[in-house]
């Protein structure tokens, strides 16, 4: 099989996956996550039910389809940080940059999407699980950088993860009260959450500022 054929096949897989995700999101927003079935999604995307589950083994993954990036985010930020920068400084820098660019990964999903998650106990539980996995990945990265101090690594990860959860919840609370398409409200929200993030990271500075420096 030629390289071109393999490339076309991979492109087709990506396009199919994206089409399934797009149709699923539209149905979730229209009907709600819990009232939408895999059969509904398959019919809308014009694929077999098995095709949907092959690409998305869990229904929740159709709604939270960037879950792998979400889980790996903080750990990747630490892995890429330059020499001399602490874990706290790296997290602060990346979080403030993500707020500025209105990154969906940290919660800038749009009001309708935020409401869809909040109205589904299944998605709320899955999001909680993803936050736990995010903390675990962060702890593993820090453990590799702090050999001989596994408790210290987990303590730092726990505090950074708690800050992450707090800021995420503050953003989601505001997103739930916004109107769809109100860009000015989103900008105000970003400004408010920026100040919250600065305050949270400042509070952590005395305890974490000199730890986990690369």
Inertia-based shape: globular
Averaged pLDDT: 91
Question: What percent of the residues sit in helical stretches (DSSP H or I)?
Answer: over 70%
What is the terminal separation in angstroms?
A: 45 Å
Taking the sheet with the most strands, its summary is: none
Q: How many strands appear in the DSSP assignment?
A: 0
Q: What's the order of the H and E elements?
A: HHHHHHHHHH
- Give the uncertain stretches in residue-range form: none
How many domain regions? 2
Determine Rg (CA atoms, Å): 19 Å
Structural class: mainly alpha
Number of helical elements: 10
Q: Indicate the proportion of strand residues.
A: under 5%
Please give the oligomerization state of what you see.
single chain
Report on this model:
The protein is an all-alpha fold and 214 residues long. The chain has two domains: 3-59, Arc Repressor Mutant, subunit A; 67-208. 77% of the residues lie in helices and 0% in strands. It has helices at residues 3-31, 38-45, 49-55, 59-63, 67-80, 87-100, 111-118, 121-145, 150-177, 183-208. Helix 6 runs antiparallel to helix 10 (183-208). It starts with a helix and ends in a 6-residue tail after the last helix.
